[in-house]
Amino acid sequence: MKKCIYLLLFIFLSIICVSCISGENQGNQENIPDLEGILQRGKIRVITLYGPLSYFNYKDNVMGYEYEFAQQLSQELGVEMEMIVAKNIANMIELLENGEGDLIAYRVPRTLEYQQRVSFTDREYVTSQVVIQLQSDSILTDVLQLAGKEVYVPESSIYHDRIVDLNNEIGGGIHIVAVNDSVSVDALIVQTAQQLIPMTIADADIARLNKTYFSSIDYSLSISFPQRYAWAVRNDNPELLAYINKWNAKNAKNMKLSSIYNKYFQRTKYFESEGFEQKKLHQLSAFDDYFKKYASIVSWDWRLIAAIAYKESKFDPTIVSWAGAAGIMQLMPSTARTMGFSEHDLHSPEQSIKAGVKYLQHLQEIFQQIPVKEERIKFVLAAYNSGPGHLFDARALALKYGKDPNIWHDNVEIYVRLKSNPEYYTDEVCKHGYLRGDETANYVEFVENKFEEYKTRIGK
Question: Which sequence positions are flagged as catalytic?
Fold first, then answer.
């Protein structure tokens, strides 16, 4: 009898062991280390942060310098790409170490601490902190000339730390204006370009990117030693590391990849065009009949649609933006397709206007819960510029901080502007990340003012 009991117990334990081993093997299929695991999974998990250089949503299109390079890598591997957005650099390192991602496609500083925790790839960048100032005959060319000058920096930033150290190094005299951390570096660059403040500090690559928005700024004066940044993988992923290094070396001069650099760091973000605006009292543009013809789709004043078109393209049907938006109404090709139009249609003045108006109607339906039409129009204008997702975020922030999510000025507009700051775009209520919020808020203001001008120039 005892032998039977022992035999049954042995069989029972054997079944449990086999089940455990089988389950363990099944679980490990998702966690096979290194490159082999990525290929078997058919997906590379890319960790990054929201930001103007890395990953952001623009007019309902995912964009970003690092994102596009990571996309090229995943295509060469023949796998899908899953984006994992971390809270900060420290969180990115933790996610990588914990096996929750395979690659950090972000400019991680090569500090001694991080070099012990991760393996840095050859996809490396060298940058330094620079002074952002306006081009002029009296431009600063030496750090000693900063004495007696006002320099604006966020109070808890690395830029504040560096300018304080530099002030000590040169014997004092720099008037450091520490602004609230809710004001982003991008916002301070905008203020410098608009001559609202004399100068600020930023990384050279951020300055280079902003130069494509504001040609009047200069960033030639460096105030720090060069610093190294790079993509990173786990220490136990030597095959993935070797593959990325080989891919990087092979594609360093590839024209397709070089075009990504030109897109973000060379192409101006604001075109220069004489356009086709008419100065006749009875006409705003050569395309007024099309604005009038399709205005009924959205039930708007046709002159408001013309104001949008002027802001977008200055009525130039040949314009293609740095991001690929085309035609008089500057729709992205993907947006045009959702409205039932082809990319070719965007270069036809009539079809571009029709597609743009249909998209305005689509946005109006999205924001139909905003009861006052005049307010709803402001939200539609903002969404036309940035995509509706950022407006959802800004409305959620407004609600969280006690503002009215159905009112634009002094309410949602505030949080649209603040969405360029990590403190806000990483808030748990935000789902769509970084936005150049000042650009969107200023867009609404410009179109409203242009509409008022058009109303005084020409009747309905």
Answer: 312
Q: Are 288 and 305 in contact (CB under 8 A)?
A: no
**If pLDDT is split at 50, 70 and 90, which confidence band does 259 have?**
confident
**Average pLDDT of the residues in 389-404:** 98
Q: How far apart are CA 299 and CA 426, in angstroms?
A: 36
User: Band of the pLDDT at 258, cuts 50, 70, 90?
Assistant: confident
pLDDT in tens, 335-371: 999 999 999 999 999 999 999 999 999 999 999 999 9
Q: Could you report the per-residue pLDDT of 102-123, keeping only the tens digit for each?
A: 999 999 999 999 999 999 999 9
Provide the greatest CA pair distance for the chain: 109
pTM score, two decimals?
0.84
% of the chain at pLDDT higher than 70: 90
The pair of structure tokens assigned to 92 is: 């990115």
User: Considering only CA atoms, which of 331, 308, 307 is closest in space to residue 319?
Assistant: 331
**Which of 126, 178, 125 minimizes the C-alpha distance to 155?**
178
Per-residue pLDDT tens for 260-309? 999 999 888 876 544 555 555 578 999 999 999 999 999 999 999 999 99
Helix (H), strand (E), coil (C) string for the chain: CHHHHHHHHHHHHHHHHHHHHHHHHHHHCCCCCHHHHHHHHCEEEEEECCECCCEEEECCEEECHHHHHHHHHHHHHCCEEEEEECCCHHHHHHHHHCCCCCEEEEEEECCHHHHHHCEEEEEEEEECEEEEEECCCCCCCCHHHHCCCEEEEECCCHHHHHHHHHHHHCCCCCEEEEECCCCCHHHHHHHHHCCCCCEEEEEHHHHHHHHCCCCCEECCCECCCCEEEEEEECCCCHHHHHHHHHHHHHHCCCHHHHHHHHHHHCCCCCCCCCCCCCCCCCCCCCCHHHHHHHHHHHCCCHHHHHHHHHHHHCCCCCCECCCCCECCCCECHHHHHHCCCCCHHHHCHHHHHHHHHHHHHHHHHHCCCCCCHHHHHHHHHHHHHHCHHHHHHHHHHHHHCCCCCCCHHHHHHHHHHHCCCHHHHCCCCCCCCCCCHHHHHHHHHHHHHHHHHHHHHCCC
